[in-house]
Amino acid sequence: MINGRPSFCVGVNVFVLRDGKILLGKRRNCAGEGTWGLPGGHLEDGEAMVNAGIRELMEETGLSAGSMEFIHLVNDRNQDQHYIQTGFLAGEVEGDVILAEPDKCECWEWFDINDLPKEIFHGHVKLIDAYISNKIFVD
Questions:
Q1: Phi and psi based region of residue 9 (left: phi greater than 0; alpha: psi -120 to 50; beta: remaining)
Q2: What Gene Ontology molecular function terms does this protein carry (predicted)?
Q3: What would the pLDDT profile of 103-135 be if each residue is shown by its tens digit?
Q4: Which terminus of the chain has a smaller tally of CB atoms within 10 A, N or C?
C-alpha cells in the first residue's frame, strides 16, 4: 500500500504470432514454474507500456519488435497478488528466438493457437482466452 492506497502489479505481456502459431515459454525458477507463458514482465516505475513490451520481448527472446499494439486488459483478482495484466501484439518482429534468460525460462516453443498446452501460467490464462475470443477487457 502506498500513501494509504492499494498498489497493484502491472504485467506487460506480448503476443508474438507467426503462421497461426503463438510463442510461449516454459517458466523456470519463478511463479508458475513448469507452466507455459507469454513473453513479458512487470512494468517498471515511469516506463511506457509499449517500451516495456519491446524491452521484455528482447530481454527474454532476443526478438526485436518494431511496434506494439494494445489488445487486452485483464483485471486479475484470482491470484495471491492483485495484477493488472495487459496484452500487446508485437508487430514487425525480427530475429530468431533465443533462450536469453535460461534461469527464468526453460525453452521457447511455437504452438498452434487452437492446440495450446494445458499447463498455461495462471497469470496468462485469461489473456490468452481474451485473444482467442477477441475480447478487449476481462474483469
A1: beta
A2: hydrolase activity
A3: 999 999 999 999 999 999 998 999 999 999 999
A4: N
